[in-house]
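User: tokens in, sequence out, please.
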């Protein structure tokens, strides 16, 4: 049948006679296209349990030309059961306890003067003797006359289950009610736990208690099918606002997903999104049987103000209040899973008397080992692991303080480090600031590096030197000879890359902070906050 062929392209030849040993079982003749003897009163692979059912053909079908139509009167129940060989023995498909069956059908309410919502597709889980032990049903209600509605469900086989059967049912009406069924399906979900690869989560701000955008990127090694759910689960400490909605989310493979904004519930043509409980985000694929994300497809999800495809995101996730390494998990009913590690880091205080004092969670460097790679005349100072104090500096004189930034990660796809300053160095009352360096030609910015060898071009800047022969410092620094500003959070500037690698790494880079103040600089103590953020891609 056409719709089932979309769901499992590799098994389309088995649509009428599925092997009950297959890992993906589809309902034989789920679209009622194969006619039995005496049609429309009979249909290949279907057993009818009462009078009132027929299997007509024509334009009223949901797809193709065949469908099931039945009418029940008050108090009557109609069960129509799928069968491989047309017998009750053929009703059953093999399954093991703990496996998940996904199933559904399309239903059209022709007439109703009684109770709507009493039409459903259902399963019967049975033991090895074919004795039924559970009857899960679809939980989506049919409430509108004259409209095809997709019903679906997902059920886990309970203990002692050896078989399951599939049927389409109507019951408990108060007056005569006519219903059409079409395109029924049921299949065992692939074994969960297939790892999503190349996983990573990039935060726009990794400080404790800060609100942050999240950019999730991973490769799906299990296909995402119609009605499948993709779940992102956050550990305790992260705060997911209840107001977060599909306008705050973008997702894309080679093209952007279409979300059903503002309702945010999945439809036949649009993705759905919801916040589940206090720690999970759920993306639901459109209804139906299509493959929406193929196996081995890179997928990116943006959450927060970085979502701009359909709406401008206006809600953010809040970081934990305690610094540390946290694990965010990807999973859901599509069968993929995996973990992503993110680092929440406290900032380090910068303090100086017409200079700067740094507190970094990095290694100290003695003044004798802190040199200028561009040939400039500098005065170097000792540092400790947590503080760099320039002291009182002469005017129009370069002072330099070095720290070694040590990175070690076993992330298969490497890492990236970004850096920001909370604001330009300023006095406690905020009245006076030391400007960020613009370098000799006035061209260096937070993203563009330039030469800076003349001390009368005042300001505060930094460079990065590949200390142990690696090449992880951003190339714009030209290995310690070009300088940049720190990106200024207060000015709305975006954090900039300072180091990165595409492979696992254990490296050291020397960050060299350079300061020069002019005659017009007001005396006082100036401070700022420098933040380093590391992202691993596993």
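Assistant: Sequence out:
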């Amino acid at each position: 049948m056409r719709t089932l062929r979309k769901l499992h392209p590799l098994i389309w030849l088995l649509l009428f006679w599925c092997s009950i040993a297959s890992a993906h079982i589809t309902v034989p003749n789920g679209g009622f296209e194969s006619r039995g003897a005496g049609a429309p009163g009979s249909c290949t692979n279907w057993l009818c349990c009462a009078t009132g059912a027929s299997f007509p053909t024509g334009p009223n079908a949901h797809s193709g030309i065949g469908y099931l139509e039945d009418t029940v009167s008050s108090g009557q129940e109609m069960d129509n059961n799928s069968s491989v060989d047309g017998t009750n023995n053929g009703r059953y498909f093999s399954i093991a306890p703990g496996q998940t069956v996904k199933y559904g059908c399309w239903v059209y309410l022709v007439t109703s003067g009684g109770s709507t919502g009493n039409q459903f597709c259902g399963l019967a889980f049975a033991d090895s003797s074919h004795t039924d032990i559970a009857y899960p049903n679809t939980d989506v209600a049919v409430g509108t006359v004259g409209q095809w509605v997709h019903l679906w469900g997902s059920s886990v086989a309970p203990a002692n289950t050896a078989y399951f059967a599939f049927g389409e049912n109507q019951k408990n009406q108060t007056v005569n009610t006519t219903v059409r069924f079409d395109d029924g399906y049921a299949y065992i979900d692939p074994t969960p736990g297939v790892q999503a690869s190349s996983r990573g989560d990039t935060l726009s701000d990794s400080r404790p208690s800060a609100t942050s955008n999240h950019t999730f990127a991973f490769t799906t090694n299990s296909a995402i099918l119609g009605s499948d759910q993709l779940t992102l689960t956050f550990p305790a400490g992260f705060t997911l606002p209840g107001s977060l909605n599909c306008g705050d989310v973008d997702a894309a493979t080679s093209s952007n997903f279409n979300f059903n904004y503002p309702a945010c519930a999945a439809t036949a043509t649009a993705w759905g999104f919801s916040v589940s409980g206090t720690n999970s985000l759920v993306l639901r694929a459109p209804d139906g049987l299509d493959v929406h994300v193929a196996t081995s497809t890179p997928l990116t999800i943006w959450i927060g103000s970085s979502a701009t495809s359909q709406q401008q995101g206006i809600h953010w996730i809040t970081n934990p209040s305690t610094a540390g390494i946290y694990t965010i998990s990807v999973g859901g009913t599509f069968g993929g899973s995996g973990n992503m590690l993110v680092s929440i880091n406290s900032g380090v205080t910068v303090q100086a008397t017409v200079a700067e004092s740094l507190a970094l969670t990095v290694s100290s460097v003695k003044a004798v080992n802190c040199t200028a790679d561009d040939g400039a005349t500098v005065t170097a100072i000792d540092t400790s692991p947590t503080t760099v104090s320039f002291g009182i500096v002469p005017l129009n004189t370069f002072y330099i303080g070095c720290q070694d930034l040590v990175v070690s990660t076993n992330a298969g796809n490497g890492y990236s480090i970004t850096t920001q300053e909370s604001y330009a160095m300023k006095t406690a009352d905020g009245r006076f600031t030391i400007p960020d360096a613009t370098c000799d030609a006035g061209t260096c910015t937070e993203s563009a590096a330039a030469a800076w060898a003349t001390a009368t071009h005042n300001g505060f800047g930094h460079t990065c030197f590949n200390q142990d022969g690696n090449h992880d410092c951003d190339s714009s620094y030209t290995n310690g000879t070009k300088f940049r500003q720190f990106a200024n959070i207060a000015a709305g500037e975006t954090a900039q890359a300072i180091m990165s690698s595409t492979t696992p790494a254990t490296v050291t880079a020397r960050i060299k902070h350079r300061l020069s103040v002019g005659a017009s600089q007001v005396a006082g103590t100036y401070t700022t906050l420098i933040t380093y953020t590391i992202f691993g891609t596993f």
